Amino acid sequence: GGSLPYEIASLIKLEVLSLEKGEITGRIPSEIGTLQELRELDLDFNMLTGELPYTLGDAPKLNVIDLNSNMLTGSISVLAKVREAYFVQLHNNKFTGAIAPAIGLLGNLQVLTLHKNDL
Predict the structure, then answer these.
(1) Alpha-carbon distance 75 to 16, whole Å?
(2) pTM for the complete prediction?
(3) Phi and psi dihedrals of 6, rounded to 5?
(4) Contact call for residues 63 and 83 (beta carbons, < 8 A)
(5) How confident is the model at residue 1, as a pLDDT?
(6) pLDDT at 102
(7) Of 92, 32, 89, 18, which is closest to residue 60 (Cα–Cα)?
(8) Which of 37, 46, 66, 94 shows the greatest Cβ crowding within 10 Å of its Cβ?
(9) What is d(CA 86, CA 103) in angstroms, rounded to the nearest whole number?
(10) How many alpha carbons lie under 13 Å from residue 73 in its C-beta half-sphere?
(11) With contact defined as beta carbons under 8 Å apart, do 42 and 69 qualify?
(12) Nearest 10 degrees: CA dihedral of 60, 61, 67, 68?
């Protein structure tokens, strides 16, 4: 259990963050966007709350985002900034709002799951 600390930014060579089913609570820290080598963010089946960090698109190599089965809220529009994304699972959360048309411009996107939200 516990939360993701903002000190995660000090892991400058981190390529994969996989903590599924870890009983993680709280928000995804905005510092996640400072991880220049991060390719995969896998935090599914936790108890994460809050919105997707606006800095998500600042991680230039991020291409796998698996955040399904949490309690995340707000908009998914920040996804449009994750240029390299090809696999994104956000189903079974509490996201709301419209699906931003810019998400359709992600040329590498192969998998996008959004069911069981309020979109």
Answers:
(1) 24
(2) 0.96
(3) -65, -20
(4) no
(5) 82
(6) 93
(7) 32
(8) 46
(9) 11
(10) 4
(11) no
(12) 120
Q: Which two tokens stand for residue 91?
A: 């189903």
Token digits of residue 32: 């996640």
**H helices of 1-119, where?**
none
Residue 41 token pair: 């963010």
Q: According to the model, what pLDDT value does residue 103 have?
A: 93
What is the Cα–Cα distance from 115 to 5, expressed in whole angstroms?
29
pLDDT at residue 5 above 90? yes
- Please say whether the dihedral angle defined by the alpha carbons of residues 48, 40, 45 and 102, taken in this order, is positive or negative: positive
For 33-47, write each residue's pLDDT tens digit.
Answer: 999 999 999 999 999
CA dist., res. 78 & res. 13, Å (int): 23
Q: Please tell me whether residue 6 adopts helix, strand or coil conformation.
A: helix
Bridge partners of residue 113, in order along the sequence: 89
Q: How far apart are CA 53 and CA 98, in angstroms?
A: 17
Q: What is the pLDDT of residues 47-78, one digit of tens each?
A: 999 999 999 999 999 999 999 999 999 999 99
